[in-house]
Amino acid sequence: MEKIQLNLGLLLPQIAEQDACIHLLTDRLADVRGVEEAHIVRENEGAQLCLHFDPNLLPLPRLERLAQQTGIAISERYRHEQIAFTGMDAADNAQSLEETLEALPGMLHASVSYAAGLIFVAYDSQELARKEILTLIQRMGARIVANVAGTTEAVDTTALAPAQAKEEHDHGSAPAFLPHWMQERWTFLLVGAAGFFLILGWVGESFLGLPATLAWFCYLIAYVAGGYDVATHAIPGLLRGKFDTDVLMLAAATGAALLGEWAEGAFLLFLFALGHAGEHYALDRARNAVNALGQLMPRTAFVRRGEQIEEVAIDSVKIDDLVIVRPGDHVSVDGWVQSGQSTVDQSPITGESVPVEKGVGDEVFAGTINQNATLEIMTTRLAKDTTLSRVIQMVQEAQGQQSPTQQFTQRFTRRFVPAVLIVVLLVILVPPLIGWTTWSDSFYRAMLLLVAASPCALAIGTPATILAGIAQAARNGVLIKGGVHLENLGRLQIMAFDKTGTLTQGRFQITDILPMNGASEQQLLRVAGAVEQQSNHPIAQAITRAAQEQNLQLPRVEGVENRVGRGLHSMVESQPVRIGSLKLFQEDADPAPDAAVLQSVAQLEAAGKTTVIVSHGGKFLGILALADQPRAHVKETLQQLSALGIQKLVMLTGDNEEVAQRIAAEVGVTDVRAGLLPAQKLSAIQALEQEHGPVAMTGDGVNDAPALATATVGIAMGGAGTAVALETADVALMADDLGKLPFTIGLSRASRRIIIQNLGISLGVILLLIVTSVFGWVQLSGAVVLHEGSTIIVVLNALRLLRYQIH
What we know:
By secondary structure, the protein is of the alpha+beta class. The longest helix is centred in the C-terminal third of the chain and has 35 residues, at 740-774. It is elongated, with a radius of gyration of 33 Å.
């Protein structure tokens, strides 16, 4: 029996690992004769399909073809789409739409994010036509956002031009026959008309002696204007047996009219419409914060074709094309600088506040801003595969994922609304039947209860917070891949870190230069640098780099002999040179190390450093000590994390105990676990989680993949340049900067506080209004003010996250 691993991303492109289609692929291949087992494993390069097979029954080439064909068949049959929508008035309308979509035959999964204005669907195209999905969405009162070409397609909102996206959100349910300027302002025109005729009727009736019939006519117009959008959603939903917030509000307004309380009913509809207009305006701010990412991507690029420079659509740029980026322009592709030198503002992608110098051979990213000189860039990724494109896609996917609190509120609302309708019926019938109140008083209190128990604020408070938190993180170079991870970050008390490349720079640097026998530091470094520049070993590169930084004139080298695991032999200025470890000189004894050399080496290695001894012409020039140094400001970062409430900071490393303890002492980590293999790191994470609860693991996203996947929250370094970091972790620090961690933890804790506050506000107001309405302690107008006020308050409270910065 043999096994093979195939890249899952190539077999099922753009399908998440949690998707049901992954199970379809493994189940189908497991049923093939000759395949004993099919399962998913996570490796350094992301998710892999692992197949255990009998090569006698199923040759490897045939198995590979079969896996590819199965993947293609599943991708073609089971469609995954993201549809931008607008026009819904309340979050529970979105929940009704989600439930209706889920009930369609052939629908594998449907998720509707009201806050983000996005619908995510996965469906069997042989059982369910795409047109049926779009028709149902429109029938449920939502309008699909058209793409730039005007066709009705499943497109992401980032593809819209800014003006068009704004236009789609402002139209409301405007009739198509109205002039364009009225369509753009339809929602606010309705609210204004409802308010104007409400005031006109009330002031005229109360103070100006307006005839009752005219006052009633003003209230009727206010009813129509204030209830137009509500009715366009509530009535179709009611006919399908869906009871949501709009239905409750329309029923309350109808009840007020039946009781002759036209002024209160008009006031209810006016405030309800005004509240939704304010809610939509506030949510659009959060959506725009996310959609602004898409506006960073240039639509065209200037490509060199021979001697000509042509402006072409960004989608037509191919790998290895030479793209010209002028000063002040957004970089249009991911690639390497072929010629030119400039500073590039990377803050849109990585959140770095200081522009970065870019020269020949340096990597640049689409969406960043070239500042002061023309760059010629060799394209390394297609437009759809750039870092920015992947970030946009993942942020949009994150908007569609539900946090634990959001799932709780949805379950609560699903049971709460039917319960309210039953209680309303009891409030209408029971008190008059037992002689407590009159029928009209009982009916009025029931209408109050309809308003009081409508869970608008509860339904919108959490998703609005999650949307704002993810948007603010993305704007600051931190990619959080879902509400569940945002909430989990806020619960953390313990964080674990990989050492090499995470707490440290991941490369050797010279820490000590100890010249001997009258040699100078420059002479020692000059001879060592001359020989070591012939090698590509990390230690050799560090020595060469140090010599170059001091602008030393390196002598000519005659021949280099590599002694594997020991060092180098060479000739410099006609004198023999030996460079290497103590073992090299103990074996050659030419010259033999004396007591001073042995003592110095012992002291340096006891401090966790690597030593390189240099001899020239039969005498020792000195010793160079090297070490992987901590990242700049990492100690301050860890102190900030402790100040934010992280109680335990743990280092997990495969390095030896001495080196690990030295780095830990420098950066301020007290819990050190050294000499760990990748599997042992995973076990350590599991033990920490069992002992302390939720734990985050921060690593470089390559050799730490198992630990990142096992931790409650996996945080990867270097997201901007590493596809693995983007794919394997729950959170990616795009700038490869640990300094973003305190901001991320602080933002998540602020998000969690706001979620709790919004739950308290919404549930508290609902409870208050239920009690006061049942006992008749509040008028309908007061109930409406409190109800709509709480909805606007929770959204505005969520939007505070868009201004969050670490202090």
